[in-house]
Write a structure and sequence with these properties.
Elements (H helix, E strand, L loop, with lengths): L1 E11 L2 H10 L4 E7 L4 E8 L2 E8 L5 H9 L2 E9 L2 H10 L10 E2 L5 E5 L9 E5 L3
Parallel strand pairs: 1-4, 5-8
Antiparallel strand pairs: 1-5, 2-3, 3-4, 6-7, 7-8
The protein binds zinc ion.
The site of zinc ion (ZN) has 6 residues, from strand 1 and strand 5.
Length: about 130
């Protein structure tokens, strides 16, 4: 079952500069983490129940580098939290919705994540994620 918006992913060119901007707004960074499998550095900023996930590419091969090259900095994906990712993926696929990831993979914070194809979700790259607290 989908429970809530987990986070909003934002592609940035420079993580430190982006963090400074959000700190000027009075928000605080929880943690900075490198996710080698996706070639990104990630900073999470908690605001209420939702987080902002700032994503900086660590390689030109990174999906974030390619995104910025094509479309510039900006909102990259919307992440919805599920209590059971495998189940959610199965149900989503059964409804004929196209997935990028049929199997969960590891994201930041040790969460299990999978992406829904934006061709199926009206132009929004949707991430389904299951937190492992
Ligand atoms: Zn994300």
């Amino acid at each position: 079952m989908l429970k809530q918006i987990s986070h909003i992913g934002i592609a940035v060119k420079n993580l430190e500069e982006a963090i400074q901007f959000y700190e000027k707004l009075g928000l605080k960074v929880d943690s900075i983490e490198e996710v080698p499998s996706q070639k990104v550095r990630v900073a999470f900023i908690q605001i209420g129940e939702v987080r902002i996930e700032l994503l900086e590419a660590t390689s030109e091969e990174s999906p974030i580098a390619k995104y910025i090259e094509k479309r510039g900095e900006g909102i990259h994906h919307l992440a919805l939290e599920t209590d059971n990712l495998r189940q959610s993926l199965k149900e989503t696929e059964e409804k004929g919705i196209r997935l990028i990831d049929k199997e969960p993979r590891k994201g930041a914070h040790n969460a299990d994540i999978a992406f829904v194809h934006p061709k199926s979700s009206h132009g929004v790259l949707l991430e389904l994620c299951e937190e492992n607290h």
